[in-house]
Each structure stands twice: as structure tokens, then as C-alpha cells.
Amino acid sequence: MKLAIFIVGFDEKLVIRAGFRIGLQPGDAALLVYSLSGGDYDRQKVSNAVNLVKNIFSSAGVAVKELVVNANNFGRDVSSLVSVLKELKPERLVVSLGSGMRYLGLVAVYASLIYRELVKGVELVVHVAREDGFYDVTLNLDTMRLSVGRSELRILCLVGDGVKRDLVVKEACDRMEKSPSTIYMLLHRMVKRGLVQLRDDVVVLTPLGEALSRVFCGGEG
Q: What is the pTM of this model?
């Protein structure tokens, strides 16, 4: 199944145009991701845009699913989207970045990358278009990988909301049967890769680290 993720904002025309540029066909599916933040006027505009997109896509034989996110916690938003992707099980995934909140576009890209790590063989592409519609490009992301090792994931699962570095090292040594020098090296690499931060000898998750922890450590949602 081909699934296209669209970020819906105030302008439904950008989403509809992207859908036809991507080549949605009857039997394909569209996932509309949006946030109902702001005042009543802004929320109503987004709701109206979502309903218009649903009507157009549904009339073309495209199955439509929605995901409303709070857009105030990257890790939670990413894991929520990964949960929906695991439920839908697409074999080809297209992320459209031509509309809506830019933050949610980043959420969609990272959630799709994580989903591809969970489900091998998924084709992942990103579609971007100019707002005037005169140029668009579709890029295959086969060469873009998260490349987070099993050892790094196990350390992420130990960090939680923040743990003293010495305790993380001790626990990781005990569980992974590795030397302290190896764990320190792994932590240093994880800091450089933006998975964790060190704050006064306390290891804390970055937004990306939290997203991975929620998905891989049983803390989704």
C-alpha cells in the first residue's frame, strides 16, 4: 500500500495539489497530520482545510486517516506518528512537505525514518513543492539512515528523564557486559550525534533521543 503523509495548515489547496502531483490513486491512503493550536479562528481554519481535503481525496477513492498532535513535544509527536504507521503498515511511504506547520514536517520525516528501521523493505520518499506550484521534486531517502546501534538504543533506555552519568555507566556495564571505557566512548558518540546531552554530569535525552526511546524502549504515546 502507498501512504502519503500530508501536513495540513490553513491552505487546503497546497495539500490537494501535492496529492495529485504525488499521483495518489484509488486504493492509496493519505494521512493528514495537523495541530489544533492557537485561537478559535486558527483552529477553525485548520479544521475547515482538513474537511475539504478529506472530501476531495475520498471522492477520488483515497482512504483518509487523521492524526492530531499537540506540537509541543517532539518525542511524543514522533512516537504518535510511528504508532499510526505501524498500524497502517504501508509498503511505500511518501512524505509531503509542501504545506502546513514546518515543525510537523520534521516530525513526519523522523517518524518515517524510524518506521523504516522497524519495518525493513519500506520505500521512503519525500515530496517538496514551491508554493506557487511551478516546481516540485520527489527524493528517495534510501541513502538516509538513522544508523543507531543496538548498544546506543540500550543506553537510551537507561537514561529516562535524566540519570547521573556514573549511574548510567555502571548500569550499562552490568547489563551489556562492556567495560566502562567502552560505555564512556558510546556516550561521547551519542552526545556528538545529538541523542543525549550532558548537564552537570547528568545524562539527559535530546528531543531525537526521546523520540527513539519512546519507540524502542516501550514508552510510545
A: 0.90
